[in-house]
Amino acid sequence: MIAPDASESSRHRSAFAEPLYRRYFVSSCFSTFAGWLLRFLLGWSAWDLTESAFWVGVVASLMLLPTFVLSPIFGIVSDRINPRNGLLVTLTCQAAIAAGTALTLALGLFSLSVLLCLAVLLGAATAAHTPIRLALIPRLVTRDALPSAIGYSAIVFNTSRIVGPAAGAGLLAVVSVGWAFLASSLLFLATLPVMLSLRVGKAAHASASRSMGVELAAGLRYARQHRGIRLILAFTLINGMLGRTAIELLPALSGKLLRGDASTLAILTACAGVGSIVGGLIISRQSGNETQLLSIVIGSLVVGSLALMLIYVLPGTVAVGLLVMAVGMITTMVGTGCQALAQLRVDDSFRGRVLSLWTVLAMGTPAVGAFILGALADAFGFAPSLLGFGLFGLLATLLLARKRRWLMQTERRDAWPPG
After folding, report:
1. Residue of 204, 208, 142, 240 lying closest to 350 (CA atoms)
2. Residue range 18-46: average pLDDT?
C-alpha cells in the first residue's frame, strides 16, 4: 500500500469500515477490560493480604516499572515478527497469570512474595503487549482510518479503566477472589479465536541477525535524526508533564485544593474519565492529514495549559470538575494525536522501536511530573504550582509550535506497512 501525501489524506474514514479492525476491536474490548480487571484484583489482593498502603503501592509500581525497562526491547521484537502472533503470545501469558493466581489461591499457596512475582510478570507481559499492539493497528486499517482506529482504542482504554475496577468490586461482592481471577483469565482467552482469524503481513524489517543492542541503538539514532519524530516525542513529553500529571494527582488536588472528601474525588475522577472518552471520540473523527493532526495537538496543549492556570483562579468543585474534564479530554486528544502522527510518519522498519519510545514517554513522564508537582504543591500550595506548570506548558508549546515545519520537512520512506 502506497502512503499518500499528507495533503491528500484529508478524508475521514471510520476504522469500522475495515473488516479486520472490526474483529480486532471486539478482541480489544475483551482484552483491555480483562487487563484492568486483573490489575484491580492484584491491587485489592495486596490490600487484603497486608492492609498496608505501602505494599499496595509496591504492587502498583511493579506492574508499571517493567514497561520503562522492557518496552524498548519489545519494540525491537515487534519490528521482527508478525504482530498478530506476538499478541497471541502476550494475551496467552496474561491469561496464564490470572489463572495461575486463581490456582495459588485455591491451593492455599498465595502469599506476598507470590503476589509480587505475579505483579512483575504482569508488568513484563504488558510491556511486551503495548508496542506489539501499536505495531499491529496500522496493518488493520488504511492510512485515512488510522486516527479513527487510535481514537476508538483510546475510548476502549479509558472506558475499561473505569468499568474494569467497578466490575471487579462487583465480582468480589458475589464470588471469591479466586473466581474473579479466573473470570479475568477467561476474558483473555476469549480474545484468542478472534486474533487467530486476523491475517496480516509480517512486520519484520529489523535484522534478526543483529544484536538487540545494535537494533536499539539504530532506533534511538533514527528518532534523534528524524526531526519530525523528535517534535512528536517533545509534544508527548509536554502532555505527560501537564494533563497526565494533574490527573495522577487528583486525590491530592481534591483534598488540598478543594478540601474535599471521597465523594469529591469520585466526582473529579468521573469528570476526567468522561473527558478522556470525549477526547477519543474527537480524534476518531479525524483523517490521516498530518498538518491537521499537528494543529489539534498544538491547540489542545495551549488550551490545556490555560485550563491548568484557570484552576488557580476558579475554585469550587463544579468549576474544577469542568476544568478536569477539559484536561482529561485534551490529554487524550494530544496523546492519541501524537501517537497517530508517529504512526503516520515513522519508517515501517523502525515502527516498533519508535512507538516503544513514545510509550515510555507517555507512561513515564506523568510519574516524574507527579513527583515534581507534588513536591511543589507541598512547598508552595497547589494553586500556584498548577499556575507554574500551566505557564511552563504554554511557553514550551508555543516554542515548539515554531518548529512545526519539521514534521513535513523530513522524508517519509515506507511510512505505511503492507496489509
Report:
1. 204
2. 93
Model confidence pLDDT, tens digit, residues 255-311: 777 777 767 777 888 888 899 999 999 998 888 788 899 999 999 999 999 988 887
Query: Is 212 in contact with 340 (CB distance < 8 Å)?
Result: no
Q: Is 209 helix (H, G, I), strand (E, B) or coil?
A: coil
- Unique residue bearing C-alpha cell 499518500: 4
Could you tell me the residue ranges of all domains in the chain?
11-197, 216-409
Start-to-end CA distance of the chain, whole Å, equals: 7
Within its chain, how far is the Cα of 308 from the centroid? Answer: 21
Q: Which residues contact 319 (CB under 8 A, 6 or more apart)?
A: none
Residue 358's nearest CA partner among 297, 267, 308 is 297
pLDDT (0 to 100) of residue 245:
79
**Distance of alpha carbon 416 from alpha carbon 349, whole angstroms:** 10
Closest CA to 38 of 152, 161, 133, 153: 161
Assigned architecture for domain 11-197? Up-down Bundle (1.20)
Residue 5 one-letter amino acid:
D
pTM for this model (two decimals) = 0.83
Residue-level pLDDT at 391: 92
CA angle 241, 124, 157 (to 5 degrees): 55
How confident is residue 78, by pLDDT bands cut at 50, 70 and 90? Answer: confident
**Amino acid identity, position 345:** R
Domain 216-409 has CATH 3.30.420.40: no
